[in-house]
Design goal:
Chain B: This is NADH dehydrogenase ubiquinone 1 alpha subcomplex subunit 6. The complex is a heterodimer of chains A (114) and B (123). Chain A has 114 residues and is mainly α. Helix content of chain A is 50%, strand content 0%. Chain A has a domain of 77 residues: Non-ribosomal Peptide Synthetase Peptidyl Carrier Protein, Chain A (Orthogonal Bundle). Chain A has six helices and no strands. Chain A is elongated and about 70 Å long. Chain A starts with a helix and ends in a 5-residue tail after the last helix. The radius of gyration of chain B is 19 Å and the shape is extended. Classes of the chains: A mainly alpha (114), B mainly alpha (123). Chains A and B meet through helix 4 and helix 5 of A and helix 2 and helix 3 of B.
Chain lengths: 114, 123
């Protein structure tokens, strides 16, 4: 019984052919994920609008320490990022994030960011 | 009886941090939660404070204990903060409790301003 079932499953009947590929994937709308450049620009804008960073040059490679932000400031910035992108950064991740690059990478990984 | 105790422990585990770093992380988590809860506090308690004013008050409270280096002390402070925030968010406090907490900061500031004005006047 199992052998016959495995034969049926292994047969070509259940394997998607190249011509069927288009029908096997749901494609109701275009990918809603944000682009890398948009994420970077928005994060830089949020950080550069923070009181203590005003007037300093902010690039994606700078760390919060280099900008003169302490741990509480970093938490402030992360909450502002959360609000702007409509996501919630888990505590383990928030403890780990210490630079703009890490923030951008986390948002890239999050599909619900908008 | 023993099973009852284990059930209570699993429900409400004693939160004691193993290291100083963990206690510090717990405090930062509390700070993030405080800031995240500001819009809800304004809405639920019909507060007339600015977002940045309330954030400043939280920040002042945290900076007040920035010199604390003992793990147990940090745990104690974090527990007090967590409980207060939980009570406020669960609407177990009244509006006057919350207003009183935020008023201490703004009231102090107003007094110092008026004092400065008076000083200038008398000079």
């Amino acid at each position: 019984m199992l052998r016959s079932l495995s034969k049926v499953l292994n047969s070509n009947m259940f394997r998607p052919t190249t011509s069927m590929n288009g029908y096997l994937y749901r494609n109701y709308g275009s990918d809603a994920r944000l682009g890398d450049k948009e994420i970077t620009d928005r994060v830089i804008e949020i950080v550069s609008n923070y009181d203590k960073v005003l007037g300093k040059t902010v690039s994606p490679s700078t760390t919060f320490k280099e900008l003169g932000l302490d741990s509480l400031d970093a938490a402030d910035v992360l909450v502002a990022v959360e609000e702007d992108f409509g996501i919630e950064i888990p505590d383990e991740e928030a403890d780990r994030i210490s630079s703009l690059k890490e923030t951008i990478d986390f948002i890239k990984k999050t599909p619900t960011a908008k | 009886m023993a099973s009852n105790i284990t059930a209570i422990k699993t429900m409400r585990p004693a939160v004691v941090s193993f290291t100083y770093e963990l206690a510090r992380k717990r405090c930062l988590k509390l700070y993030r939660n405080c800031i995240r809860s500001i819009p809800y506090l304004i809405q639920h308690y019909n507060l007339s404070y600015n977002f940045s004013e309330m954030k400043l008050k939280f920040r002042e409270d945290f900076l007040q204990f920035s010199q604390v280096k003992q793990k147990n002390e940090l745990d104690r402070l974090a527990f007090i903060g967590e409980t207060e925030l939980y009570d406020a968010m669960s609407l177990l406090k009244t509006r006057s409790h919350v207003v009183n907490y935020f008023e201490t900061h703004t009231h102090k500031k107003q007094l110092s301003d008026s004092e400065q004005l008076l000083k200038k006047f008398f000079e």
